[in-house]
Fold this protein.
Amino acid sequence: MTLQQLAYFVAVADVRSFTRAAESLGVAQPTLSRQLRALEDELGAPLVDRGGRDGPVLTPAGEAVLPLARRMLADSESARTAVAEIVGLRSGRVRVGATPSLCIGVLADVLRVFHDKYPDIRLELVEGGSQPLVRSLVRGELDVALVIVPPAGIDPALHTTPVLRERLSVASPTSDRSPSSRGSMTVRELARRPLVVPRQGYDVREATLQAYADAGETPRFAVEGGEMDAVLRLVEAGTGVAVVPDLVFAGRPRLRRTMLTPPLYRTVALARRADLTPTHAVRAFRDTLLSFLSVLSAGDGFPGDVQVLRRPDT
C-alpha cells in the first residue's frame, strides 16, 4: 500500500469519476485504474463499484477505508511540510536549462508540477542548445539542465543522470501525402525531399547532417536556422520535412511522424556540476522530474519511441 494509491482512491471517491480524478491528479486514467486495482488486491476487497449508473460508487469496504485514507494523507502532508521547513524548501532558487524540444515536450509540465509543490522556490528557465547549456553549467550559471549526451560523452566536470532515450523521426505535414506508404523511410528517401533544420548549436541538426553524410547523401535545404518551434511551424505549413525528437509530436495534430531506418536515437540526461553539492531545491526538482517521467511512462503518455531510463527510487 502506498500513499499514491491512497491519493488515487480518495480522488475517485471525491469526484465519482475515474476520468476527472486522473485529470485532477495530472496522471493518465489507465495509470490511476491500475494503481487502484493494486490497492484493492492488497486489501483483499474491492473499494469501488465500477458498474454504477452515475459513476463509481464506494463499496462498504471503500466507505470504511476512506476516512483512514484521508487521515493518512493528511499526516503525510503534515510530515512533508515539517521536513520542508527544516531543509529549506520554503525558499530558494533553481536555475534550469533545457533544449527547446524538451521544453516543448516535457519541461513545461514538470515546472508546473514543481511550482505547485514548492510555490516559494523561484524558478529560472534558460532555453538553448545542449552545447551552450553545458558551458553555462560549467561556468556555474545554471544549477541543473536537461541536455543531450553526445557520442563522445559529456564534459567530465558534470555529473549526469540519463533519464530518457528518445528516437528521432521525420516530421511532415498531415495536409500532404505521407512521405512513405510503409510508415518508415531511409535517409536516401529523405534526401529527395526539401529539408528544414534548426540553427547551429542544436544537436538534432548535427545528428541529421551526420546521418546524411553516413548515407552518402547531400541534403536539399528548404530553410536553415531558427528555433525548434519555428522548424515545426515551417513543417506544418508544408515548407519541407524535418528530423525531430519524438517528444515534440505530442499535441501537434498537424504533424505526421515517419520513422527513420536505420533508427536514430539520442540520450537525454539531467546534468549538474560534479564538484558542487546540490541544494535541497535542486534535489527536489530532480525528484519531481523523475516522478513525472515515471508516471507519464506508466500511463503510455509519450508519443513515438521514448523510454524512461531512470526511476525516482534509483
